[in-house]
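Fold sample X.
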Amino acid sequence: MSVDSDRLVQAAVTAYRELLIGSTVLSDEAVAGQLALQAESVVRAVARQLSSTEDDESVPDMSARIGSERARSRIHPTQSLRAASLMFEALFPVLADALEASGAPLSVVELGTALEREIQQRVAVGALPYVDYLLTSLLSSQHDERSRIARDLHDRIAHGMGVALQQLDLFDHYRFRDHDRAEEHLAAARTSIVSSVDMTRQLSADLWVTMPGDTLSEALASYLDSTAPEGTRTSLEMLGTQPHLPDEVAAELYLLIREALRNALIHAHPTSIDIELIAEADLFRAVIRDNGDGFDVDAVTSAKPIGGLTSIRERAEMLGGRASITSIPGAGTTVDVHYPVATVAGQRW
């Protein structure tokens, strides 16, 4: 028996839109339009099964196109999974009513299976572009990190050693002519060498991606102790119970927060830096505040859309979270990182 696909689509999409209202899945109208298209595609595919007609082979192309758009908008696949769950919840009752009215030789279980298969097929195809986005972001982050290391080697360490060599040349020039001046140049050379050695050690520590402590808070405390200059007050507070994060997530969060601290210490010249690690019901937050020079965030990111700020944001997005950076010239900077704590098999990470 035939099914009125247009009427079925209208009823199903309306039910889906009503269920999406107020959901975190629905961020803007563009997303709503994408989800409506997917719901329409699913309903028509299932309706063809109720009518015993052939499937439309263009479905994967549409799912891949929508997936690419969502990846460019940096919408994490977990949002697609939430949308898929809501889609099943909205569409199943509508399709079940249509099944009963059509007299099609399908059981309710078979209908549910067909609906789930159609939804998951689109989720799987749509998730593939996000993998490409992650690889691109990872390569970009690695490139930025290598560029930073190259700059540090050239601008700080090589420069410091060059200054030391120059001071040693001056020492050699004055050592038999002016003992006091020779000693001054020797002392300056020694100071420059010590500074370069310290920077080399710090750069080596930065390359060590495994957290030096057993927990994220311990690792960050160790980093602050080893890098914060004398006279800079630092504090680290854990609010709530520290969640048991997967090793790879904890390591990425450590690198992200370390980058925020490094930016503050090198560029902002703060007298105080405060870190708050906040464990909420389904969210883990890290807030890094400094009272340094501050800067115009929009001007910096538009003029130079690479480097530390981009790395912080991209690392957060790769974890399925987000990072916001606020700053006022002369009044410090705040980096606020949100990581949604996942629930697996009833246990929190």
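Fold sample Y, listed below.
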Amino acid sequence: MKLFSSIYDFYSTKKTVVTIGTFDGVHIGHKKIIQKIVQNCEKTDCESVLLTFFPHPRMVLQDGQDLKLLNTIEEKITLLKETGLQNLIIHPFDYEFSRLTAEAFVEDILIKKLNIQKIIIGHDHRFGRNRTADINDLIQFAAVYGFEVEQISAQEINEISVSSTKIRTALNEGNIQLANDYLNYYYLLTGTVVKGKQLGRTIGFPTANLNINENYKLIPKIGVYIVKSIYNTKTVWGMMNIGYNPTVGGTTFSIEIHFLNFNEDLYGQKLSISVVASIRDEQKFESVTALQEQLFKDKEFTISYQQNHGM
């Protein structure tokens, strides 16, 4: 998959089949659309192109500070590489770009830059300045400029919308199983390991403190989870605490992972954590000893889960 950081960097001598959207989560519904454009290209010897934007348009045009996304850019790129997509364009979205008229978008972007033969898009897709143009306008432009428009059905779009909503709701409620079912992969948290207070190692449970720079990334509900990660090509299992460590008087939010049977210096390293299952809510214990006893139970539960699921 070729990656482009701007529409204006893209060039192809072949015609293209294009889809446009945020594709946040790259979940089952999104993959169906990508599969459509990939299959179209196999039949017509075109190149498949997914055009997306960053920042998210809502972050630019509305008060998008509360907007939480399922993927960081890096995670989205990794997931899209697995779909068979040939070209991914992540175009910088700003106010100036939002002022582009619908006709200018079609002529300057779709025709001149993307060399489009076909666009596969949702019936509810809107584009151009103030989002005034819709699928009907696009069909009219297609007749003038000589490209095809394939509508994604209302049912499919509804499924995608529901999936995204349900994934966010499930993560906010700590229902990792449901979120993972809709995603069709384990929810990812990617960050850099930083130094913490090192309290875990004093009770036999040293942790890697994960710092996620992207403040728009949706963090699951506070609680304790089974996780796994790839380190030096090997799968390492662990348990992760998202929260404030109330038993030891913690007041700062943190994401901490205790890896099983693992003793490596991870400071400064970037890790991608797959959130596999939920263990329990975070709670305040009467003593550090009581916390330690619970952590041993959590560890046993994690080992049992790993063994029972044949991983």
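Sample Y note: The chain has a mean pLDDT of 91.
Also: The radius of gyration is 23 Å.
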